[in-house]
């Protein structure tokens, strides 16, 4: 999957100041966060499978577990949270 970002000239200059290769830095940051998310999903799914007496096997391949996961995305969790907030009338 390709994700495109846009930086202002000033933002790019600032990133170039702190990173030897800004493009590599952004790629590495996104990849590291994705890997951490994959580990979170994997651990949650393994815990759920271990707690389910009907589960007979747990796939060993992390990518398989992540792709098969039905855990809600951050956007879905945020929307569910916002749906629980009281509606404040406008004044």
Largest sheet: none
* Count of the domains: 1
Q: In percent, how helical is the residue content? A: 55-70%
- Overall structural class, as computed from helix and strand content, comes to mainly alpha
Q: Specify the number of helices.
A: 4
- Kindly report how far apart the N and C termini lie: 45 Å
For the CA atoms, what is the radius of gyration?
20 Å
H and E string: HHHH
C-alpha geometry: flat
Extract low-pLDDT stretches. Answer: none
Count of DSSP E strands? Answer: 0
User: What is the average per-residue confidence, as pLDDT, rounded to a whole number?
Assistant: 95
Residue fraction in strands: under 5%
What features would you describe in this structure?
- The chain is mainly alpha-helical.
- The chain has one domain (9-83).
- It has four helices and no strands.
- It has helices at 9-18, 22-51, 62-68, 74-83.
- The model has no long low-confidence stretch (mean pLDDT 95).
Short note summarizing the structure:
The chain is 63% helix and 0% strand.
Features:
91 residues; mainly alpha; 4 helices
Topology, element by element:
Elements: H1 9-18, H2 22-51, H3 62-68, H4 74-83
Helix pairs in contact: 2-3
């Amino acid at each position: 999957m390709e994700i495109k970002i846009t930086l202002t000239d000033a933002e790019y200059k600032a990133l170039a100041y702190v990173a030897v290769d800004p493009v590599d830095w952004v790629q590495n940051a996104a990849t590291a966060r994705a890997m951490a998310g994959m580990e979170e999903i994997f651990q949650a799914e393994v815990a759920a499978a271990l707690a389910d007496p009907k589960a007979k096997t747990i796939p060993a391949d992390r990518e398989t577990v992540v792709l098969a996961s039905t855990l809600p995305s951050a956007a879905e969790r945020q929307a569910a949270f916002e749906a629980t907030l009281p509606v404040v009338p406008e004044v």
